[in-house]
């Protein structure tokens, strides 16, 4: 006989040895315990779903905000007519990046008025501040920007950034 069958037989024998009122009490306690377990599991699952839903909504809101900021940067960059100095674009980009605490991974001048820039993962607000500074102070605007979010909140990965001078 297996251990489970043996345990089952002993449990049934113990249950049957109890009085009728004790048997009813055992059944009621068993039902209450089962309900307690079911409610506990259900509430845990419901809380987990609620938290996941909240996180999803926050990420969607952050994504929408980031897309709006990118569109704003692109729009304002193309209409900006701030005059730049006679400094080379690469020099201006390098200096302003350093001033704004931004680490350049790559700086490739394409023409006198076009530079491709590679950046390390960075804070999105820091990126927008730097790009606004380039546009407003130096007449350098974003002609192409491709970025993606990272696992860390507020940090973006700039896959492609092309800067042009008016």
From TrEMBL:
Listed Gene3D superfamilies: General secretion pathway protein M, EpsM
Biological process, per Gene Ontology: protein secretion by the type II secretion system
Transmembrane segments: 25-45
Listed GO CC annotations: plasma membrane; type II protein secretion system complex
Transmembrane in keyword set: yes
Pfam family, any one: T2SSM
Protein name per its UniProtKB record: Type II secretion system protein M
């Amino acid at each position: 006989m297996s251990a489970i069958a043996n345990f089952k037989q002993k449990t049934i024998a113990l249950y049957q040895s109890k009085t009728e009122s004790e048997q009813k009490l055992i059944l009621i306690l068993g039902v209450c315990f089962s309900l307690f377990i079911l409610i506990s599991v259900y509430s845990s699952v419901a809380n987990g779903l609620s938290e996941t839903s909240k996180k999803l909504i926050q990420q969607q809101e952050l994504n929408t905000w980031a897309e709006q900021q990118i569109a704003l940067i692109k729009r304002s960059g193309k209409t900006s007519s701030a005059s730049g100095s006679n400094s080379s674009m690469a020099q201006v980009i390098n200096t302003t990046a350093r001033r704004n605490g931004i680490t350049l991974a790559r700086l490739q001048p394409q023409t006198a008025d076009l530079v491709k820039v590679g950046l390390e993962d960075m804070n999105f607000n820091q990126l927008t501040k730097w790009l606004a500074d380039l546009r407003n102070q130096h007449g350098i605007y974003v002609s192409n920007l491709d970025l993606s979010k990272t696992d860390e909140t507020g940090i973006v990965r700039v896959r492609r950034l092309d800067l042009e001078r008016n």
